[in-house]
Amino acid sequence: MRARFLCAIALLIAALTSGCSQHNKPAHPVPTNNPALSWNFDELAKRPAVSSEPASLAAAVNSPAVWQHLEQFQRIADASDGNRAAGTAGYDRSVDYVQGMLKARGFDVEVQEFEYDFIHVKSATMTVGGRTIQPQILQGSMGTSASGITARLQPLSPGLKGCSEDEYAGIDVRGTIVLVDRGDCPFRQKEAVAHDVGALAVLVANSKDVNDAARGQEEPHFLPIVMLAKRDAETLRASPGEVTLIVDAPRQVIKTRNVFTQTTTGDPHEVVVLGGHLDSVREGPGINDNGSGSATVLETALALGPHPDLKNAVRFMFFGAEEDGLIGSEKYVKSLSRNAQLDIALMLNADMIASPNPGYFVYNDATEGSDTAPAGSESIRAAFTDRLRGQGITVAGFPFNSRSDYGPFLDAGIPVGGLATGDNALKTGEEAQAWGWGGTPDTAFDPNYHQPGDTLDNIDKDALGRNAGAFAYLVGLFGHTLDGEYAVPKRTERAPA
Q1: What percent of the chain has pLDDT over 70?
Q2: Spatial separation of the C-alpha atoms in residues 332 and 340, rounded to whole Å
């Protein structure tokens, strides 16, 4: 009876592209003879009753509880060519694990299947003046012919990032390969703007001399685009000339899934969403990015259970293909009717919350370079900030730059918020000092960002526990009320049904 009831709700609130479905058969089934991936879900999902009060829920979603799921994600990656990327056996096995745990706990689990075109960049090479430079590939780049593109290099002035046509004012870049700085907007936007002003390809100057794989981009693709180490970009700027760029990038169609479930209790027109992406990059197992976030979502669901004493419903979401361009979350949000979108009171995004050299960042639209967030987002920010500060933790703002799964929710006008511990940006000495316990200054928050080294050894357990507990606390807080000190607009205030 519950399954049919939830399916009816899902059909009412979400015109899913695949409907209310039970497509549980993975494209790459878990081999039954693989003892490393044999789970007793009934035993694993056993949980003592936990109060839905915020403090009790936060205490239950602690580092050891979340860690057990990270161990499973590591086992999956180890048995799946080292990664859990969308369209691979590793991702399908991650879905199997999440579904198995939720079902054993008593949840009715839904999946949303979708397909997308993916350009798998195999290699990129560049020559200038007889010298070869090895650029960093950006998954999603358009490819070139086997002989590549040969054209004059046109660098923009240092600091210009190619995010708008205004930055190209007075410069004829038609038929050239342009060089822009990293930051301020997605790679896809740089690519689109360069295409519109007549460039043939884009080189992006990194802010550091590291090799950090970058996420892909959903269609449409416009131009070949690669990233250069800071030193190589500076050399090219000093003596620009003719450049040949070769990008080997075949296109493939990937079929994958989002996974979600919702409490049977609570108002289905005042839904609190807790979500994170379940996929990793193809370069590594993704235990921090984003096993840490998806394990937190899973453990919060298991601790709360399917029938909690809450005023507002809670939806737990595991998105696919985030690393290929926020594709899963975008497919999901766009599949909802406008009324179904308005039924979502807020979205809490858990992504990279246990970096080994952690910062403590709260999504904040007052941060420079941040997108303006919908009304109610400031309440989420305040609730996270107060929760961490109450534990003696200094926090800093993190910009809404739509580089994670909150982006499509933000675009739909849904209040959003979240925590992060930093990616491959460098922790400053001032930041290390401000966070008390320090960490390593002038070192990346996560030196293994998008790399094979993003394993269990890449997790800061203290950061994992603090942040996971904070997410659980806010689920309990907003699950009980949208009023009070951290008020979020109610359904009648958002728009009439």
Answers
A1: 89
A2: 11
